[in-house]
Amino acid sequence: YYIYMLCGAGWVKHGDHGRTIVAAIAMATVVPVTSMGITGQDLESEESLWDLYERWCAFNEVAREPDEKLMRFSIFKQNVRFIHENNQGDARSKLGLNIFADKTHAELPKVEADCTSAGHLPYHFDYMPHTAITNEDLPDRVDWRDHHAVTSVKNQGQYCGACWAFVAAGAVEGITAIKTGKLEDLSPQMLVDCDKANLGCRCGESWRALDFIKKNRIATDRAYPYDGIQRRCHMRADGLSRFASIEGFHVVYGSERALMAAVAIQPVIVEIGLDIYFHYYSEDMGMYTGPCNKTITHAILVVGYGTDAFLRRYWILKNSWGTK
């Protein structure tokens, strides 16, 4: 089976320049409430802000010790004001008080900014020119969740920069389900522990993880569960616990239409740059339309695309930061 990746900003191959994705994320058909809104009354006083924080803790089932709670409340107030100011007027993207609302920016989920080779793909890769796949008509809408080819949202954890492993596992989950009808959660932990071409929880590159899966196969998450800490590799030498493999993968480049054509075939890995605003995006707040950072720091899975009632085109992205 083939996995498709998008060539990101700053990658130059065979005279073609990669394209940055300005990601717009669609609301799901059934929208889970993942964040809280902010009213002017919430900002009127210290007491009203404290009441908002108490409601936020209850909503997210967060328990804090008294001393920590006071410290977290101070951070929470700053984030509340940042989110509220962003949401005024005709803000491009509305933000919400999601699970990250009482954390500092330094505590937000790790991204792989310290991979020195990030964004540099070997020249021997199979590239899929956009002209080879964009001449045919494409579906107006694709959502692989509707076709039982996307597993549930996972949580890489605050201290493990393993998005590269989650997207590699997710892409293989998708193509395996499409080809065999069997949707299984695969093991990012196996990649974190065993793929020595990457750096575990420090950082990694999804193409290296795909190459590892091609050579070694990958276990299910049940056989090799995730705990967010890089440990000694313990995959069985006989390979019996390894569930899935791929024949190879292509890099997609050239245009957004080329990405659409690839996503029409299967879920696709993309590598993007994150802005701080992205951390406070919440699905129930609507579509995220930016901003994005030009430096590639994060890997994410595209599982669909479409156009909403206002004729805005969007991508459906699966992240690995938990359901909230």
TrEMBL record:
<dbReference type="InterPro" id="IPR013128">
    <property type="entry name" value="Peptidase_C1A"/>
</dbReference>
<dbReference type="InterPro" id="IPR000668">
    <property type="entry name" value="Peptidase_C1A_C"/>
</dbReference>
<dbReference type="GO" id="GO:0008234">
    <property type="term" value="F:cysteine-type peptidase activity"/>
</dbReference>
<dbReference type="InterPro" id="IPR025660">
    <property type="entry name" value="Pept_his_AS"/>
</dbReference>
<feature type="domain" description="Cathepsin propeptide inhibitor">
    <location>
        <begin position="53"/>
        <end position="108"/>
    </location>
</feature>
<dbReference type="Pfam" id="PF00112">
    <property type="entry name" value="Peptidase_C1"/>
</dbReference>
<dbReference type="InterPro" id="IPR038765">
    <property type="entry name" value="Papain-like_cys_pep_sf"/>
</dbReference>
<protein>
    <recommendedName>
        <fullName>Peptidase C1A papain C-terminal domain-containing protein</fullName>
    </recommendedName>
</protein>
<dbReference type="InterPro" id="IPR013201">
    <property type="entry name" value="Prot_inhib_I29"/>
</dbReference>
<comment type="similarity">
    <text>Belongs to the peptidase C1 family.</text>
</comment>
<dbReference type="GO" id="GO:0006508">
    <property type="term" value="P:proteolysis"/>
</dbReference>
<dbReference type="InterPro" id="IPR039417">
    <property type="entry name" value="Peptidase_C1A_papain-like"/>
</dbReference>
<keyword id="KW-1015">Disulfide bond</keyword>
<feature type="domain" description="Peptidase C1A papain C-terminal">
    <location>
        <begin position="138"/>
        <end position="324"/>
    </location>
</feature>
<dbReference type="Pfam" id="PF08246">
    <property type="entry name" value="Inhibitor_I29"/>
</dbReference>
